[in-house]
Design a protein that fits this description.
It is a single chain. By secondary structure, this protein is α/β, with parallel strands linked by helices. The strands form six sheets. A four-stranded mixed β-sheet has the order 2-15-17-16. A four-stranded mixed β-sheet has the order 4-5-3-14, with helices on one face. Strands 6-7-9-8 form a four-stranded mixed β-sheet. A hairpin with a 3-residue loop joins β4 and β5. α1 runs parallel beside α3 and α7 runs parallel beside α11. The longest helix has 13 residues. It starts with a strand and ends with a helix. Bound molecules: shikimate-3-phosphate (S3P). Shikimate-3-phosphate binds next to α5. The site of shikimate-3-phosphate (S3P) has 10 residues, from α5.
Length: about 425
């Protein structure tokens, strides 16, 4: 385990491009492997999670080559995955674990077991097992809800599925299975969630339609994907943005970050808190066929913040950035409240418990609730030691807290950042030297 001390920073200056988007990289690898013709992916994220996905695609029969900045995937086609004797190792990647079964469910007569690290074994899969079972597949899981689990492929029927919680992973899983089902498959979302799967499927020639909270895909014989260029990850960029806002005297530029509206809830929350961020973000998309992935540049400056309230609707649009909202809340004037975010308890760690305990240990004043937290802003953080609990976002949260703190923060388990952002320390180093 790596222990790193992040000392208070004088100011941050300079320009950084965040790493490639993790969500979009997972989808590019999976859809590339499902496609009939080779697909070239530019700016694929080379991090632990997305390497697990490339390895899973190799195991299933795709030929994957990695050159300097292009990953080429020669897929198996929709229904021809290789039979396997060993489980597919998803590592720490929840997105791989929840999306891939959508494809595997349609492999008639073949069964696949998925397993991963200790954290993955605590993360529920009943949420995908339920719709896939209704479509005709069989899923065997530990206690009916935990990995390792086996997907028995079948001839699938289409369904209309009401998602019990807004989850892009579950939505995507059902949509992927829908590609191989008879007829049209509809997912109804309780609130909008990230729509990368819909956008990529539409660009692969699939009929995808959004009508309010309903998303429908029609089955296909094959996927024909154009080459894909992955934009920067707004969730990784959010750590840099938070650092720029919190460290006195900072002025930074974050370039080439995704600006897809379903990923920029954090920017809207930060704006309400008075954060100084300038840049063009995508507007909320309307009904109909979804477009390609937008990207852009942001300018960030240090400034004072005030508390805000984040309600359930906004949660899926900023789900991975809510730990940072808690950190911003510590530095803000007044209370910052997050509600309707029970899902945070099911992430790489129980992020309500680990964020609240972690920031309280650094001098914050936070209270956990069943579905979120209340932060009483004190204008700053003293500092201390925080454990990552093997959670990449908690490790990076500790680092940013350290830069903005009075006495610095020691992060125990900093290596967890490699799951999504292997160049995190290097990028902060650039801004510290600027
Ligand atoms: C993701 C969806 C979100 C998010 C995760 C990535 C995706 O999970 O927290 O980091 O790529 O679809 P849920 O769908 O469980 O909310």
């Amino acid at each position: 385990m790596t222990t790193v001390k992040w000392s208070p920073a004088k100011r941050l200056r300079g320009t950084v491009a965040p790493p490639a988007d993790k969500s979009i990289s997972h989808r590019a690898a999976i859809l590339g492997a499902m496609a009939a013709e080779p697909v070239r992916v530019r700016n694929y994220l080379h991090a632990e999670d997305t390497t697990s996905t490339l390895n899973a695609m190799r195991a299933l029969g795709a030929l994957v080559t990695v050159d300097a900045d292009v990953v080429t995937i020669r897929g198996t086609g929709l229904r021809n995955t290789t039979e396997l004797d060993a489980p597919i190792d998803v590592g720490n990647a929840g997105t791989l674990m929840r999306l891939l079964p959508g494809w595997l469910a349609g492999q008639e007569g073949r069964a696949y077991t998925l397993d991963g690290d200790a954290s993955i074994r605590t993360r529920p899969v009943d949420r995908i097992a339920e719709p896939l079972t209704r479509m005709g597949a069989t899923i065997d899981a530990v206690d009916d809800r935990l990995p390792p689990f086996t997907v028995h492929g079948a001839h699938l029927r289409s369904i209309a599925y009401d998602l019990p919680v807004a989850s892009a992973q579950v939505k995507s899983c059902v949509l992927l299975a829908g590609l191989m089902a008879d007829g049209a498959t509809t997912v109804v979302e309780p609130a909008p969630s990230r729509d990368h799967t819909e956008r990529m499927l539409a660009s692969a020639g699939v009929t995808v339609h959004r009508n309010g909270r309903h998303v429908t895909v029609t089955s296909v014989d094959e996927l024909v994907l154009d080459d894909i260029t992955v934009p920067g990850d707004p969730s990784s960029a959010a750590f840099l943005i938070a650092a720029g806002v919190l460290v006195g005297g900072s002025r930074i530029a974050v370039v080439g970050s995704g600006t897809n509206w379903t990923r920029t809830g954090f920017h809207r929350i930060l704006e309400r808190m008075g954060g100084i961020v300038v840049g063009e973000l995508e507007e909320a998309p309307g009904d109909g066929v979804v477009g390609t992935e937008p990207a852009g540049d942001l300018d960030i400056a240090y400034g004072p913040l005030t508390g805000t309230t984040v309600e359930a609707d906004e949660v899926p649009l900023a789900i991975d950035e809510l730990p940072l909202v808690a950190l911003l809340g510590c530095f803000a004037e007044g209370e910052t409240i997050v509600r309707g975010a029970h899902e945070l308890r099911l992430k790489e760690s129980d992020r309500i418990a680990t964020v609240v305990d972690g920031l309280n240990g650094l001098g914050g004043n936070l209270e956990a609730t069943d579905d979120g937290f209340i932060v009483r802003g004190t204008g700053g953080l003293k500092g201390g030691t925080i454990a990552s609990h093997g959670d990449h976002r908690l490790a990076m949260l500790g680092a940013i807290a350290g830069l903005a703190s009075d006495e610095g923060v020691t992060v125990v388990g900093m290596e967890a950042a490699d799951v999504s952002y292997p160049t995190f320390a290097e990028d902060l180093g650039t801004l510290l030297k600027g």
